[in-house]
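Please produce the structure of this protein holding pyridoxal-5'-phosphate.
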Amino acid sequence: MFSNWLYLHPYKKKQVFMKRIFNFSAGPATLPLEVLTEARDEFLDFQGSGMSIIEMSHRGGIFQKVHDESMARLRAVAAIPERFDILYMTGGASTQFALIPMNLARKGGKAGYINTGVWSKKAIEQAKILGVDFVEVASSKDQNHNYIPSPINVPAGLDYVHMTSNNTIYGTQFRTLPNPGDSKLVVDMSSDFLSRPIDWSHIGMAYAGLQKNAGPSGLTVVIIDREYYEREKEETPSMFRYSTFAKEQSLYNTPPTFQIYMFGLVLKWIEKQGGLTAVDAANEKKAKLIYDVIDAHPDFYLGHARKEDRSLMNVTWNLAKQELTDDFLKGTKAASMDGLKGHRSVGGLRASIYNAMPLEGCQALADYMKDFLKKNG
Ligand SMILES: *Cc1c(COP(=O)(O)O)cnc(C)c1O
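Below is the modeled complex.
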């Protein structure tokens, strides 16, 4: 399915082979071939309208239906309780880093932050800029963020506790969400959103830029408890308030229509896989293929994350012989794999194996790793 693919080239007017490789990029990242194919097939004429989905008004009936259906699908797929609103926003998770303290911090109150790496720290920086009082309730900084702090003791009375559920750069992931005491969690799920079922009991807000695990870049999904709106401040401009998006069903201004449409297709694909429980089981199986190779050869492959905190989305490791890293990467290109270079904060290698990465891709990488070891071990 993912190797060579025969199709009719629109300009060359003949059958050509299109090559799909295994793309391990951290984001934007690989998307299901079925989703891309469906989008391609209806791109010029959406449902007999004679227009592309990206050419039509966001106020028209056709787009409205796409919009509403995607939200309803998300609520069903992720089992989102009634107390939450679903908001479609832009500006990526990075904009949320600022909007959260702006809207959720109370005057005279205190926020909590769990620091598990670069993205957590960027969220903390925005709270600092806004002059919000906060406490770092836990951190994994002492060991280059190779673990998830546990147990986490959260002091009472915090406005919210911000955390990153999956640390894209370091390859660590919260297996279960921590208990925030009498507060609620605000969770950056950018890199594991819809990769597994979500326990909403301790969550006040969850958000994700979609380009890691759930769609193209340009759409940020926010799932927020309505009780937070009463904290909004008079001086906050409309576009920076969550309630503005809630009141107008995220159609206050022009939304990213193409991204919303693509997100709907991804949700439909998740349903077809059997929902989040099935997707989670598939992700476990995929990650195991690669971690098994690392575990079997600990003198050659050095996993970055502590075993019990390893991410099912981003596998990070170094070569004991670091000078071979470039060779390793060169060989992956020849084997139709891409995107495996590690982030500069960890170095080495990283395989991002989100929902849309097929089992065959993880198997190909595991086989390549065994082969590379045989030649260089
Ligand atoms: C990629 C990423 C971000 C940044 O997302 P943008 O959409 O580029 O702002 C934030 N948090 C996590 C966990 C990420 O993986």
